[in-house]
Design brief:
The complex is a heterodimer of chains A (about 240) and B (about 270). By secondary structure, chain A is an alpha/beta fold. Helix content of chain A is about 35%, strand content about 25%. Chain A has a 6-stranded mixed β-sheet with strand order 6-7-8-3-9-10, sandwiched between helices. The longest helix of chain A has 16 residues. Chain B is mainly α and about 270 residues long. Chain B has one domain. Chain B is globular and about 55 Å long. Classes of the chains: A alpha/beta (about 240), B mainly alpha (about 270). The interface between A and B is medium-sized, with 35 and 27 residues. Chain A: Keywords: ATP-binding, Nucleotide-binding, Transport.
Chain lengths: ~240, ~270
């Protein structure tokens, strides 16, 4: 079953087709890789799916039911979608703990007005921070973390959302091997829980290791799709992606 | 204003106008009708809630510098109304003879009694603000300040949060305006111009953004400093100008060496 589908999805920037009539389907419970050279439209696609950029054409279908031609950022969590960012976006001058607590509390203004920390929220925050090894740093401001720790905190923030679909935009970029292991472990664990992961990644080794299915993009278009072991052998993919 | 500027990160310079709405509501009702001081505060707050809701609806669509410019415009518009709606506000002539309040037989005509009343309101506002900043709402406001788009992706419609905190802080400014009108017993539009908003902004930046105690400290500092400078002993013919110069230099030095304010947690 397809949990997210795009139908002729399009995005233009001053006449440049960043995403050009793209039609893809993401299977529920799978790890789907999106690969392609720089500027091929991978991050633009994630931004369109998460409402951070307005859609210029086509539609996004969620769960086969919700047909959307206009998505607002605050709507995506109600569809069970969460994301990380290519360039880490934390709440810098808030503590590590608050970076987690802020996404697990009430969404309405009125409810949040009367809501205080509860044991449930604290436990959830502790659980995700322990998982990524940042529980000891819970009192530190996010701005004081190292680059790798910031990447991990951003992933922890998505885990706290208990979403159905995780859009990870280059989660391994700039991480040490130990941290890469933690992130790989988290992605595998999410798959075991039947969650859907969309992985934008440049590291072909990781794509081969983790993904069930991949889409290759080039100049906003779909170049190839299929199982990694098949797609990565295709001549057109090798030429476009590896430049050989 | 610290709730809007310090906690939510929205640079606002409209608050003198809301302060003015509270002051004019109290002044007009006390001098032209039988309404008492405390009901006049309630009416001033209601009028400010309506006005700030309408203004906030427009402002909440803006971010960053555009938000600040929008608040600049609204303060100018409301000041023009105070100045030119002469049949209601008496324009530049101002409204004299505003009485001091009385409650349960306690007369607040004396300055000491009025100080007690003002401190009671200050305590009330402080704890109301504290309640907000220590709730989940306060945490969301800080997240909006840090990265509005990122927090929106996690399911928060930031427009409502920005609107609500703007309205709440406007209502607090209106209460301060009512107290001011009754304390001074005379008001005119000059007390509610843009520079007054800038002065309030200077108070919270100097005291410390996103720190409620900082707001109080900043107010004490900026109000008392010019008075303290009276005792420095400048020659009489240039004393006033020198006080202004020293006052300015102290502010610049503080911003150079303590950009987050005296006890602030966040800098613009």
């Amino acid at each position: 079953m397809k949990i997210i589908e795009t139908k002729n999805l399009a995005k233009r920037f001053d006449g440049v087709h960043a995403v050009d009539r793209l039609s893809i389907g993401i299977e529920k419970g799978s790890i789907t890789g999106i690969i392609g050279p720089n500027g091929s439209g991978k991050t633009t696609l994630v931004n369109l799916l998460s409402g951070m950029l307005p859609i210029d054409g086509g539609e996004v279908v969620i769960d086969g039911v919700q047909k959307l031609t206009h998505i607002l950022p605050h709507q995506i969590s109600f569809f069970g979608i969460t994301r990380t960012f290519q360039n880490v976006r934390l709440f810098e001058q808030m503590t590590v703990l608050d970076n987690i607590l802020v996404v697990v509390t009430e969404r309405s203004v009125f409810s949040s007005f009367f809501e205080k920390h509860t044991k449930y929220h604290q436990k959830l925050a502790e659980e995700v921070l322990q998982k990524i090894g940042l529980w000891e740093k819970r009192g530190q401001l996010a701005v004081n973390l190292s680059y790798g720790q910031r990447k991990l905190l951003e992933i922890a923030r998505t885990l706290a959302m208990k979403a159905e679909v995780y859009l990870f935009d280059e989660p391994f970029a700039g991480l040490f091997p130990e941290m890469r292991k933690i992130v790989s472990g988290i992605i595998r664990e999410l798959k075991r829980e039947n969650k859907t992961i969309v992985l934008v990644e440049h590291d072909i080794g990781l794509i081969r290791e983790l993904c069930d299915y991949i889409f290759v993009m080039d100049e906003g278009k779909l170049l190839a799709e299929g199982a990694p072991e098949h797609v990565l052998e295709k001549r057109a993919v090798i030429e476009a992606y590896l430049g050989e | 204003m610290n709730l809007v500027v310090g906690y939510t990160g929205l640079l606002s310079v409209t608050h003198a106008a809301f302060y003015g709405i509270g002051a004019y509501t109290t002044a007009i009702l006390l001098t032209q009708s039988g309404v008492g001081f405390f009901p006049s505060i309630v009416l001033g707050v209601i009028l400010t809630l309506i006005t700030s809701f309408l203004i906030g609806l427009v402002l909440s669509k803006f971010k960053g510098d555009y938000y600040a410019l929008g608040t600049f415009g609204f303060n100018t518009i409301l000041f023009a109304i105070f100045l030119n709606w002469q049949s209601l506000t008496r324009g530049p002539l101002g409204i004299p003879g505003i009485s001091r309040p009385e409650l349960f037989g306690i007369n607040f005509a004396s300055n000491f009694n009025f100080l007690i009343l003002a401190l009671l309101f200050l305590g009330l506002m402080y704890f109301a603000s504290r309640f907000i900043t220590s709730s989940s709402l306060g945490r969301v406001l800080k997240a909006i300040r840090e990265d509005e788009t990122a927090i929106a992706v996690f399911g928060y419609n930031t427009l409502y949060f920005k609107l609500v905190i703007f309205i709440i802080s406007a209502a607090m400014a209106a209460i301060a305006g009512s107290l001011f009108a009754s304390y001074i017993t005379f008001i005119d539009p000059s007390g509610f111009r843009l520079m007054e908003s800038v002065f309030i902004l200077a108070i919270i930046i100097l005291g410390g953004l996103a720190n409620l105690r900082g707001s109080i400290l900043g107010a004490l500092f900026l109000i008392l400093l010019p008075e303290i400078l009276r005792f420095v002993g400048f020659p009489a013919d240039i004393a006033a100008q020198m006080r202004q110069v020293v006052y300015g230099v102290i502010l610049i030095l503080l911003m150079l060496y303590r950009p987050q304010g005296l006890i602030g947690e966040y800098k613009l």
